[in-house]
Sequence to fold (247 residues):
Amino acid sequence: MSVKKILVSQATPAGQPQYTELCKKFGVEIDFHPFYVIEPLSSREFRAQHINLPDYTAIVFSARHAIDAFFATCEDLRVKVPDTMKYFCTTEAVAVYLQKHIVFRKRKIFYGTGTPQSVVALVTAKHKGEKFLIATSDSGHNEAITKLFDEAHLDYTVGVFVKAVSQDLKGVDINGYDAMVMCNPADLKSIQENFPELDLSKFQIITFGRQIVKSLDDAGVNIALQAPTPQAPSVAKALELFLSSQK
Fold:
């Protein structure tokens, strides 16, 4: 299949010289269009989970959206986050974002290296007695971290704070593309909702992220290239590898 047009399920990057170079090098057109947006749950939607926020002494964050939604929910429900709350974050970038809501130096904040294993490793004997709330989205696949929490015999609850809302893609000439980059299960959900009759087998699919791979596998959709990998740590690098393989 000759690839001439590629649709990336993300917003247009602020600076995109690497994509401009790819277009010149391979003679392709690369368009960006987010397939979904992340929105916080309403207080009513959150209450439906029957989670009593004051019961928890530690919270696990993997995204900045979840941090904003957590503090907004606490404010809406008039719950005061105690000074003793402990925060376990998947990465340093997520942990630093907490400064938007709390005084960083006065709280107990821990961060891993981006994997569920690195987060659980932070829960030493000193923290094993905490009651954890794992903040996630409605499209999140939490099996990796909940399995580790179970194996470590930790007391936890998974709480949904944000939801993925499909964008209206009806104005996108989807059949004009030869390949698509998908990064999240919500990307597939949005495509299926917007184009229920679309045959995804006609496209070359490049994935960036583990969760979308499982969703596509479950849907029986073939994947042309999976990333991230050491050779393709970014979407741009993944596209370069993919396009090079098409020569």
Observations:
- The CA atoms of residues 62 and 215 lie 20 Å apart.
- The chain has a mean pLDDT of 94.
- The first helix runs from residue 17 to 26.
